Amino acid sequence: MARIEQHPIVRRDWKDPFTFTFAGRPVTAYPGDMISSALFAAGLRVFGHHPKDGAPQGIYCANGQCAQCLVLADGLPVKACMTAVQPGMSVEPVDGLPTLPSRREVGVMREAEVRPVAVLILGGGPAGLSAAIELGSRGIDVLVVDDKDRLGGKLVLQTHRFFGSTQAVFAGTRGIDIGARLEKRVRELAAVEVWLESTALAVFSDRVVGVLRKDRYVLVRPQMLLVATGAREKSLVFQGNTLPGVYGAGAIQTLVNRDLVKAADRLFIVGGGNVGLIAGYHALQAGIDVVGLVEALPECGGYKVHKDKLARMGVPIYTSHTILSANGVDGVESVTVAEVDAKFRPIPGTETSFACDTVLIAVGLDPVDEFLRAAKEYDVPAVAAGDAEEIAEASAAIFSGKIRGLEIARSLGKTTDEVPEEWRTMGEILKSRPGPSTSETVPSDEDSVIPVFHCSQEIPCNPCTSVCPQKLIAIDEADIRRLPQFLGAVTGRECVGCDSCVAICPGLAITLVDFRKDREEPMVTIPFEFGESRLHAGDRVTVLDTVGEPIAAVAVEAVRRSDRTLLVKVRLPRTVAKRAAGVRMQESWVGDPLPQAVERLGDDAIVCRCERITAGEIRARIRAGLRDMNEIKTVTRAGMGACGGKTCTALIARLFREEGVPASEITENIRRPLFIEVPLGVFAGVEEEAL
Prior knowledge:
Layout: E1 2-3, E2 18-22, E3 25-29, H1 35-41, E4 48-49, E5 56-57, E6 70-73, E7 76-79, E8 90-95, E9 113-122, H2 126-136, E10 142-145, H3 166-169, H4 175-187, E11 192-195, E12 198-203, E13 209-213, E14 216-227, E15 231-233, E16 246-248, H5 249-258, E17 261-262, E18 266-270, H6 274-285, E19 289-295, H7 304-313, E20 317-319, E21 321-327, E22 334-339, E23 352-355, E24 358-361, E25 365-367, H8 370-377, E26 382-384, H9 394-411, H10 421-431, E27 449-453, H11 463-467, E28 473-474, E29 485-486, H12 488-491, H13 500-504, E30 510-514, E31 523-528, E32 540-544, E33 550-562, E34 565-571, H14 574-577, E35 582-583, E36 606-608, E37 613-614, H15 615-623, H16 629-636, H17 649-658, H18 680-683
Parallel strand pairs: 2-8, 4-8, 9-10, 9-14, 10-11, 14-26, 16-24, 18-19, 18-24, 19-20
Antiparallel strand pairs: 1-17, 2-3, 4-5, 6-7, 6-8, 12-13, 13-14, 15-25, 21-22, 22-23, 27-30, 28-29, 30-31, 31-34, 32-33, 32-35, 33-34, 36-37
């Protein structure tokens, strides 16, 4: 592991280093580091060992949703991924059951503050910030609560440009920049107050929301509650699934894009949705080899342009495949995958293994909607926005928050404005799933400069239309999911070769072919997002087509920078120039399999990470006739751990389905009244210095 000192998109000042200790060993950190990122940068991925079986423990989600990264910081149990490291801090691994501190007298206790507010927004991500802007701009008293140390939610991890509409949701702008813009607007509104590093704990029957504001417990009494808490990643059951080195996609993105830590050397991805595809691209930008990607479906579910980007970078993609095991002792050393049949069952004899040190799990998202359900149970006026309402892209979350903000303002009597119908239409378009892929249309013109659109799937996206100075690119204004069209022949005007469309395309799916100086060897402009240090004029590169097939090896003529995107210019034969779509980043041998498949011995596929309960233990209870998840919890302790059943409940439900038990026969877990772990002294009003 190492710091990423030259990232092609993100910058960080490596100033004012300080030291803390882990297990007595000095470790260097920088201001803004979480404990987990500082440990990773020092090459430490094991943070402790489970008291039940001694299994190595480390991060999994890096989002505060699980409890696998527990450490003792200055004697107190904390999540390493959510706790900022401080100079001189003493961090100890949790090896077995920790020793409880000696009993101390508590001298200072206080009543919890009760804070009334017009609108309480849980979550400072794209949906929450957009809603806060709509409300705060109308002078409505708003409180935004977020558990991170900065606003933006997942936007702070998104280095790529966004799809969607330039008019509605900043399409063509990088997620990190969108987050900064939204935060700036929120900070300018006097009516909006922001509490960072503050965790909503529960919604109570007396219609208040308990919030841990850093170290103080506050009761917030809102007139309206907006739940914009986003989503948590789904987990997956397979052998070796809790080894250090098996992480959610968000964990890798957090480490490489927010903390600038090279979190792996060789990465393997499970899941071909947008999350997995984008995370793989981010890993490549961080200098990590991406060994391969498996998707159980016959085709990746994410945008085709995201899949094509990985293919053009040299990443092998295996559809109709699944993971069988992550292999290793104290960490991942290899991964074993297999082809699946029409019922998604592994086909014996198709097992293949790949050497890697990290497995990224990206198999979907579940809404974090506990607060919304509790609010409805206790008749607290509440609505949801973003992924807490419906899983979709971040562009959709931005617009969802905008709509909910106006709806709330109207319900509070602060405006008579109704949500425009075009807003609702755009909201539905932004939430829509990608359409079927079509064959790529290549223009026939070879007399001037022409843009070639390598996007062949209908998705909501129109940035290219907004930047063309000649207005020569068009997409149906009523439905931005339509494919772009070049209007040169229709208008009689010519492209001026400004490269703007190439630079702004979120899918890196536009190239520019210039026949003006040499019709037989035109100049082709190709987008490249891997930094000026990776490519220079005179370097020889392999140029690939849309799906990653090599078409020519040529020298780079020139490189130009446009807002952190490099525009690489190469000369190609006329016969292949229009097919050019990308430049290979990693050699094909990176994805070569091992000579023999690795078989992991023993049934250690874990369902409940907190209590280390295996799938076999759960299946045995289901086959014995148990149909109540609460009974299974009582017998096995699955769901009784620190995370409150957030990661295992969905997995237990999946095991019921695999065992052929209909949903109508299953009784779900009773949800805990507190959704997040919290020291009991907080409720007693014990002051920090007395804890």
